[in-house]
Amino acid sequence: MKFDYDLFVIGGGSGGVRASRISSSLGAKVAMAEEFRVGGTCVIRGCVPKKLLVYASHFSEDFEDAAAYGWTVPKATHSWKTLIANKDKEIDRLNNIYHSILDNNNVELFRGRATVVDRNTVKVGDKEYTAKYILIATGGTPVMPELPGIEHAISSNEAFHLDEMPKRVIVVGGGYIAVEFAGIFNGLGAEVTQLYRGTQILRGFDSDVQHFLAAEIQKKGIDLHTHANAASIEKTNSCLKVTLDDGDVLETDAILFATGRRPNTKGLGLEAIGVELKENGAVKVTPQSQSTVDNIYAVGDVTDRIALTPVAIHEGMAFAETVFGDRPGAADHENVPSAVFSQPQVGTVGLSEADAREKYGKVDIYKSDFRPMKQTLTGGTERAFVKLIVDAKSDIVVGVHIVGADAAEIIQSVGIALKCKATKAQFDATIGVHPSLAEEIVTLREKFVAA
Ligand code: FAD
């Protein structure tokens, strides 16, 4: 049977763009549908604008610290409008680059929402296109809870486009996106309250990291409430009144919910043609990203494996090489390094202590909690934390967790060591870079023994 295309990709985000580019370079005729902006969540309303806002928010602390190093800095003021305009300019530039990537790789782009008609047919607007393979790369969307007044709340999508910088912000949620936005607004001078219904923020992270970061962000001024949630929101002439589930009422100028994301499969037509979904709507896939219909694949956040851009890109590459490159391979989800761009940052790779104990039984723990050198002159109270988790039997390092300045930059290289299954003895044989926070990773010698 002759098809219009070898591959039709639905969704022009991290996974979809990489899969289409590589598939095309391997000789496939490729089309893509994108309903919003090419680049997807990461470029348009995720990693990139978020990191730019994180940079912006860190200056306030830097200005304060500068005095101890001899600088006289006049009282700084901040323009939210300038920040957002400059950020938007950069996002437009990246968006154009993504269009060029598709053009240069002969990927035909259809603007509009796509649905799947049958296992070989995709519909965009009122036109239908056939393809030998279909790739679902539709990402995810923020989930807003159902509660009275929720229409006055925002998600991370809207946070990037607020007309004004709110003076008071409530951030609801305990995941990395909530923590990052709390840090952004706090650094930019807002009064920030963070509500999290669970026991501690950053669920799933190593428990020392959870507690350490919670203490650090509170020292920076974030009013963190665990076991707390918003029950209703009322808009008055001057503010939003948020009633918590224990009856307390807080006044705020903005309330941001970062309480989870759901895979974008609603109304896509997948179930009707036999593509099985998980309970949360994610596409069920094999390690090769193949769905339960054998010519339909899915990569990225829509599969709810590890919802990070480099993972979506990696899955997109593995898909293209498997299907069009004669190099079948599973996407590898082991030892994926990741970061939280909080203040201070978190960098993590491998297992938490709890997961390592469950997997390996006996593990050795090495940890250090210290005052970073920069703070010696400033008198600042920020502390740093490094933790190594080692499988006692093999001596292989199975988890590294860092909280501190530049933790994201540091953890990337540590990820290589974990991929190589480096042992603690090999970490110890590595000479440190002095003076640095990172040298702690290779100088920790004493096993931690619980008191
Ligand atoms: P997406 O990038 O979401 O792309 C999906 C695309 O499909 C979208 O452009 C959407 O418009 C389109 N689409 C959906 N349905 C249809 C349809 N029916 N027809 C046509 N088009 C459709 N990850 C990191 O690694 N580091 C970070 O620092 C980081 N920060 C983040 C911060 C925030 C606030 C958020 C929300 C996410 C962040 N992420 C981060 C996660 C990262 O953005 C995602 O993991 C990544 O974008 C997933 O890529 P994807 O290709 O699966 O989907």
Features:
451 residues; FAD/NAD(P)-binding domain; Enolase-like, domain 1; 13 helices; globular; binds flavin-adenine dinucleotide
Strand content: 15-25%
The oligomerization state is single chain
Fourth CATH level, the homologous superfamily of the largest domain: FAD/NAD(P)-binding domain
Give the count of structural domains. Answer: 3
Characterize the main sheet.
7 strands, mixed
Which structural class matches the secondary elements? alpha/beta
Shape: globular
Your description of this structure?
The model has no long low-confidence stretch (mean pLDDT 97). The chain has helices at 14-25, 40-45, 47-66, 80-104, 156-159, 176-187, 207-219, 309-324, 353-360, 375-378, 407-419, 424-428, 440-443; strands at residues 5-10, 30-34, 108-111, 114-118, 121-124, 127-136, 140-142, 168-172, 191-196, 223-226, 230-235, 240-244, 249-252, 254-257, 261-263, 296-298, 338-340, 346-350, 363-370, 384-391, 397-403. The longest helix is centred in the first third of the chain and has 25 residues, at 80-104. It is built from 13 helices and 21 strands. It has 451 residues and is α/β, with parallel strands linked by helices. The structure holds flavin-adenine dinucleotide.
